Amino acid sequence: MTNVSPAMSGGTLAGTGRATLLARRYLAPVPVAAPDALRGRLAPIHDEDGELLDWQLNPDLSGTAAVMAAADLAAWRAGWVHDEPLCLRATVAEFLTWACGHADAGPLRMLLSEETVHGGLRVDPASAAGLARHAEQVGAALRVADERGVGLAAPGRAGLLRGFAASIEPADVLRRGDTAVTVTGTRLLLHVPDLGGAGPSGPITLRGWVRRGGRTVVLTGAGDGRLGEHDVTGTDAAEMLGVLAPDAARVSVLASPLTAVFAPLTVVLPRAARAAAAAAATLHLVASVR
Predict the structure, then answer these.
(1) DSSP labels, the chain
(2) Could you tell me if 174 and 183 are in contact, meaning their C-beta atoms sit under 8 angstroms apart?
(3) How many CA atoms lie within 13 A of 233 on its CB side?
(4) Would you give the distance in Å from CA 120 to the centre of its chain?
(5) Is the per-residue pLDDT at 29 higher than 90?
(6) How far apart are CA 98 and CA 95, in angstroms?
(7) pLDDT in the model for residue 194
(8) Average pLDDT over residues 196-201
(9) Residue 38 to residues 33, 42, 65, 264, 270: CA-CA distances in angstroms?
(10) Cα–Cα distance for residue pair 105/109, rounded to 1 Å
(11) Counting Cβ atoms within 10 Å, is residue 133 exposed (0-12), middle (13-18) or buried (19+)?
(12) What does the domain layout of the chain look like in residue ranges?
């Protein structure tokens, strides 16, 4: 399970805000037993009624064994389920806030249902088609509005790693005591109580960061465009940046169109929903915290 530590309890990415919403379609029934090659390396996932929903890695696995088992699990699952990763639940909340003020959110509100966290929300084919239509309508409204938020990008990675659209400025993304990451308009700010006297005393406007060789260095910029570097290795700030982009060694912070920030919900979601409707299949909306 992936959870914010108890001490990091503030911000939109606290709790289930960090869970990734998946659009899931089953291609075949969930196998009741793991294949011989994976036996002992997997654990079943059941809902509150005891129904078998999925399989996950045995939590006792670690290191190379876990990496190899994860690859084998992904290959096995591809034969009976298709997952379309969308975005974080925190992004869904921002999307719905924007949609409710600019368009008809309609059935899109189901994206934040607590059922998505507890086993998954089942959407019948007709409702899936309606979900796709409303998501595309919000996408059209976003193109007309032409507003911007904040996006995180990494070299060699298509699109945004994730994005933010603050509906109340400034908004905490993550907070632990006096250390916080906040978003305001098209800026991502890092609030640090102390940089050993070597850094600015106020909030830092982040232009990006680099995580390499066990060190974390933030790239900052003043209003005149001057770029600075500050080593935050071993601090709460470094941990927070790791949460924001866990798999990226170098991250850039960009002023990004909301069409790009919300593309997973206005492009990817409608595609997945229409595929389910066309196949007369149930669409499962699942918030994955693994």
Answers:
(1) -----TT--BSTTSGGGGPEEEEEEESSPPPSS--GGGTTTEEEEE-TT--EEEEEE-TT--HHHHHHHHHHHHHHHTTTEEEEEEEEHHHHHHHHHHHHHHS--GGGGGGG-GGGTTT-EEE-HHHHHHHHHHHHHHHHHHHHH--EEEEEE-TT--S-SEEE--SSSSEEEEEETTEEEEEETTEEEEE-S-STTSS-SS-EEEEEEEEETTEEEEEEE-TT--EEEEE-TTSHHHHHHHHHSTT-SEEEEEEEEHHHHTHIIIIIHHHHHHHHHHTT--EEEEEE--
(2) no
(3) 10
(4) 17
(5) yes
(6) 5
(7) 65
(8) 51
(9) 10, 6, 11, 32, 34
(10) 7
(11) middle
(12) 15-146+266-288, 149-259
- In this predicted structure, the answer to whether residue 231 has a pLDDT above a threshold of 60 is yes
pLDDT score recorded for residue 5: 45
How many other C-beta atoms are found inside a 10 Å radius of the C-beta of residue 240? 24
Residues 161-197 pLDDT 10s = 999 997 667 889 999 988 999 999 899 999 987 665 4
Segment 108-122 mean pLDDT = 92
Instruction: Give dist(CA 213, CA 233) in Å, integer.
Output: 10
8 Å CB contact between 1 and 290: yes
User: How many angstroms separate the Cα of 235 from the Cα of each of 44, 112, 157, 183, 238?
Assistant: 37, 32, 27, 20, 5
Summarize the confidence of residues 53-66 as an average pLDDT: 89
Per-residue pLDDT tens digits for 136-154: 999 999 999 999 999 999 9
Contact call for residues 20 and 86 (beta carbons, < 8 A): yes
